[in-house]
Amino acid sequence: DHKISLESMGVTVNAVAGALKAFFADLPDPLIPYSLHQELLETSKIMDKTERLHELKEIVKKFHPVNYDVFKYVITHLNRVSQQYKTNYMTADNLSICFWPTLMRPDFENREFLSTTKIHQSVIETFIQQCQFFF
């Protein structure tokens, strides 16, 4: 209901973000399927920006339709938030740091994975910055 005002109800932005992150954490599978994580890593190594963006777009097309729709909604929203960075201090970089673990649900126990966290974060940052291209 777009008429609901969370602000008038005293709900803080942090509470909404926390609830959203908790929702994604409770899903049986991450929004970005585990089966595509390695492909995202490999694509992020492509030096040519245009080619990398096109390859990322092809990966997003492999999402289950429901995941695709939710991912599109979340990334588009995060892009809108990042456009207000002068007020909220939430750049695409800051947002990607906060949300990549929620969207990808990595295995932080895996030492190999720990070496790729910055790459995963940068992929989410790219999705946020270039959301008009992807969607």
UniProtKB/TrEMBL annotation:
Ranges where the Rho-GAP domain occurs: 1-135
Any one Gene Ontology cellular component term annotated for this protein: cytosol
The organism of origin for this protein: Eurystomus gularis
Single annotated GO MF: GTPase activator activity
Pfam families linked to this entry: RhoGAP
Protein name (database record): RHG05 protein
GO biological process assignments: regulation of cell size; Rho protein signal transduction
InterPro entries assigned: Rho-GAP_domain, Rho_GTPase_activation_prot, RhoGAP_dom
Membrane-spanning intervals of the chain: none
Gene3D superfamilies: Rho GTPase activation protein
